[in-house]
Amino acid sequence: xxxxxxxxxxxxxxxxxxxxxxxxxxxxxxxxxxxxxxxxxxxxxxxxxxxxxxxxxxxxxxxxxxxxxxxxxxxxxxxxxxxxxxxxxxxxxxxxxxxxxxxxxxxxxxxxxxxxxxxxxxxxxxxxxxxxxxxxxxxxxxxxxxxxxxxxxxxxxxxxxxxxxxxxxxxxxxxxxxxxxxxxxxxxxxxxxxxxxxxxxxxxxxxxxxxxxxxxxxxxxxxxxxxxxxxxxxxxxxxxxxxxxxxxxxxxxxxxxxxxxxxxxxxxxxxxxxxxxxxxxxxxxxxxxxxxxxxxxxxxxxxxxxxxxxxxxxxxxxxxxxxxxxxxxxxxxxxxxxxxxxxxxxxxxxxxxxxxxxxxxxxxxxxxxxxxxxxxxxxxxxxxxxxxxxxxxxxxxxxxxxxxxxxxxxxxxxxxxxxxxxxxxxxxxxxxxxxxxxxxxxxxxxxxxxxxxxxxxxxxxxxxxxxxxxxxxxxxxxxxxxxxxxxxxxxxxxxxxxxxxxxxxxxxxxxxxxxxxxxxx
Length: 521
Description:
single chain; alpha+beta; six-stranded mixed β-sheet; 21 strands; 30% helix; 21% strand; globular
């Protein structure tokens, strides 16, 4: 095992030496076709599948599997079988029955059974970490037979979307399900996915090898090993791709993104991500307790310029709070287009023809390069309608702590990048705008009981058509009340070598490269 890791490292070192040190023009590294090198920005915060809820989500779907998967855009059906070959729900939406595949093996030799599914989800629920909250509707899990498991809910919920989540829904080997987080965080795993965690150097490198016993088999051209190099600098990742030292990268510099796929050696496929940016306005105090001023701020935003400057054009102006392509999105919602004249008229109507005397505080996560780039445009645009903005960059944890404090002492405006934990709008709408006794995710401190009732009704109905109509009604309330400025639906870009094929962008699993589907031509 040690020799294999050393061989991979040697291949990478030699390739880097010839390409970067010798600088041979027009030459690229020649890595073996059965090895994929991924220049990733994503480190590991935990290897525990019950607690994972951060950047390690990029890797978890290659180690672990869920009962079902949400299909990528353009698919015939909304869901695809995973560890469950079939599933049923009763008419009331309270009993969900899953029929498991037989003969599925875990990396440690464990066997998939209904009891393993029950123990995995109950472990996650009991731990209460990460995205465990998605299983709040679950009242009981029943083992009906060795290969049939039933979830009984407290109230109806879109459980197919929940159990297909990219967080908290992973099934763990029965041999390891009782192990604690320390065991996993030592670099152990217990999945049944296509790849096994072979080695890990925190913030440096992760190596995966193929699991010979994977239930889908290994026919066709696939990778035997995946080498992940943790590269935080986009310029370095770009150099690795162009030189052939890497096959795939998470990020390259924004200024290079537009011309990246003009290079014969490289490609930049794009697609939806279900990530979006918004600026949340503090409705608990002046000036944004005035709806007219909130609407003026929405009209003032130069969203197209923000997309160009901060994202290299990789995005589109949001239509409401639910990103384009996600279940519940409504293209017919009203959209605040950049219109300074209307914004100024609203300021006059609000009683401030000469603007505001006091400045407003605008916070953003200093680590987020997109927010850093569009912050000056926000300040400039607001200044044109008489609102003086003080930009206050903060590390994310500090920004969140400020938000969770006393709204009277908190920021006036807060930028936030958001993406859903599972593909139903309820989590987003509930988290960001439901009435909270103590601030947590509701950055705008919005309070509308009718909105709360509407999204709960949408979440609880098994009728998808009715649910969509109710979500549209709730989103219309947000657009009308304007507690937040809906800025940008993020377009996902993949930076890769031209010979790397099989990458599928599935916005339900943001940032996840499914290594099993990829190969080199």
